[in-house]
Amino acid sequence: MRGKKPYQILWLVCTLALAGLATGVRLWQESTAFKGDFGLPVRGATASVAMVCVLVMAVAVLCILAARQPIVRPPRAQVRGRRWAMSFFATGDLVFLALMWFSAFSALAAVPMLFGQGRALWKAYQVALAMKTWQGGDNGVLSMVTAVLALLAFFGLLQIGRDGYHPGRRSRGGFWAALPACAGCGWLLNTYRNCAADPVLWDYVPLLLAVIAGMLMYTDWAGMSCAAARPRRTLWLAGMTVVCSWVALASSPDTGTAMLLISQSAAALAALWRLPINLQNPPKVGWEGNLDTCSIQDAEPQVEPQDQQPPLTQPEPQPRVEEDWTWSREESQAMNCTGENKEEDTHV
After folding, report:
1. Dist. CA 109–CA 256, nearest whole Å
2. Contact at 8 Å (CB) between 239 and 264?
3. What angle do CA 80, 84, 86 make, to 5 degrees?
């Protein structure tokens, strides 16, 4: 298996080609499939049909690549699930480190924008309540929650890149990958809350697909460090995250949303860059017991051999010797003579 060429280049070329094609079709759809000042969709537009066909083709092509991805199962460690913990190790790989840190700082750049947007909506909500003119809508809470979760995602992505570049250190890969997944949950709620009232489905469906694909990718990423590894599905989700994110970026979203899309797209490219290589040629970095995973059981402690000592034996009881305390008559008289305390006569 080590003699075969990794699927890394094939994954990257196919994913980027599909993403570029989908982005071009989306731009074509934006310019021809909507009409009027309100941007209502044109029924049966050619660009919309082509957009659906491109997305279906992307799903099919990535499924074929995932099914043909060769996988060499890492050796089973003492604890179940540790054999997949090295799947994202990239010792000395500057490309993986650069992509992950670019993803992390892109998520960090979205924090002030999302928080400022949510704060402005919250102030407008308070003013409307004071004037008793509130008719419902977005009060900005979900935007501020998404900003906080994006900050947590920044730390998670930063730590994933660091642990992949220095795989000898103890880490909690499942925990760090779960932070961007939680950010995806908040982002999904915020996106649906803002776009649910839009009658034009093509305005927000690509964005929802991108958010869902990224959230599921991070969830499977966390599962690779635990006992729920699905490597082929992780690769497929990474490819779909890139395609859907580029389609959503072509719709010109707000700056905070665009930075989050760029962040998850860069993380997906990092997964496509490193995961196919490690699945085909599993890395060997030190002892697997040093890997800190989120497995349930711990490794059995090793007991050092001790020197055997001879068993303690109790001494045998000695026979009791009775002494002869009988005295002769002469000895008794001598003791009486010497043992008496003679008082001196003071009158003499």
Report:
1. 8
2. no
3. 125
Distance, CA of 194 to chain centre: 28
The burial class, CB within 10 Å (0-12 / 13-18 / 19+), for 308 is: exposed
Measured N-to-C along each axis, helices 255-280 and 94-130 cross at an angle, to the nearest 10 degrees, of 150
The gap from C-alpha 313 to its chain's centroid, in whole angstroms, comes to 59
pTM more than 0.85: no
* SS3 sequence of 87-127: CCCCCCCHHHHHHHHHHHHHHHHHHHHHHHHHHHHHHHHHH
Q: Which residues have C-beta within 8 Å of that of residue 238, sequence separation ≥ 6? A: 15, 217, 268, 269, 271, 272, 275
Report how far Cα 182 is from the mean position of its chain's Cα atoms: 10
Question: Residue type at 205?
Answer: V
Task: Note whether 23 and 247 are within 8 A (CB).
Answer: yes
Which of 63, 93, 79, 115 lies closest to 256, judged by CA?
115
Pair 187, 211: CB distance under 8 Å: yes
If you count them, how many residues does the chain have? 348
Which ranges of the chain does DSSP label H, i.e. alpha helix? 8-32, 46-68, 94-130, 141-165, 173-195, 205-224, 231-249, 255-280, 329-339
| Residue 40 dihedral angles phi and psi, to the nearest 5° | -70, 145
Angstrom distance (rounded) from CA 26 to CA 261:
16
CA angle (155, 159, 165) in 5-degree steps? 155
> Distance (Å, rounded) from C-alpha 6 to C-alpha 16?
17
pLDDT tens-digit series, residues 271-287: 898 888 878 777 665 54
* Token pair for 6: 């990794």
Instruction: For residue 57, give the nearest of 247, 278, 294, 289 by alpha carbon.
Output: 247
- Least-confidence region, from 7-11, 67-71, 106-110, 167-171: 167-171
Tokens of 325: 């305390």
Query: What type of residue sits at position 93?
Result: D
How many angstroms separate the CA atoms of 224 and 230, rounded?
7
Tokens 């006569």 -> residue = 345
